[in-house]
Amino acid sequence: MTMDSAPVADDKNASLKTLTTVIYALYALALFAGVSAIVAIVLNYIKREEVQGTWLESHFKWQISTFWWSVVWCVVGWLTFIILIGWVVWGVAFVWFVYRIAKGWLNLNDNKPMPVQ
């Protein structure tokens, strides 16, 4: 590795951190416009290889997991809303989603990886 490659690696990591921030923002925006979560998950899968082996990989795994579990809980809520349990499921899923986005975004801001799941 030459001395010139370190700044390039730092630039790439900074760029990937910015992308990860944008993806968290898209997930947060999904609370108001759900389609932004689709954009976010697509970006997660497109850029997943680029973050492999970095501390940002844990954030991508966290985001992807958050997306898919949110889908599961929304479907469960939809299937059970007729018996009123669905409303509780949706409420808990909403709070859980907000927690996951906030926790991830705060760790990202502090340059910390997410816990292994």
Provide a descriptive summary of the structure in words.
It is a single chain. The two termini are 33 Å apart. This protein has one domain (5-109). It has helices at residues 5-29, 35-51, 56-80, 85-109. The mean pLDDT is 92. The protein has 117 residues and is mostly helical. It has four helices and no strands.
How is the secondary structure organized here?
Blueprint: H1 5-29, H2 35-51, H3 56-80, H4 85-109
Provide a compact summary of the structure.
With 117 residues, the protein is mostly helical. Helices cover 79% and strands 0% of the residues.
What are the key terms here?
elongated; 117 residues; mainly alpha
Radius of gyration: 16 Å
Structural class: mainly alpha
- Count of distinct strands: 0
Integer count of domains: 1
Give me the number of helical elements.
4
Oligomer: single chain
Order of helices and strands: HHHH
- The residue fraction in helices comes out at over 70%
Largest sheet: none
- Beta-strand portion reads under 5%
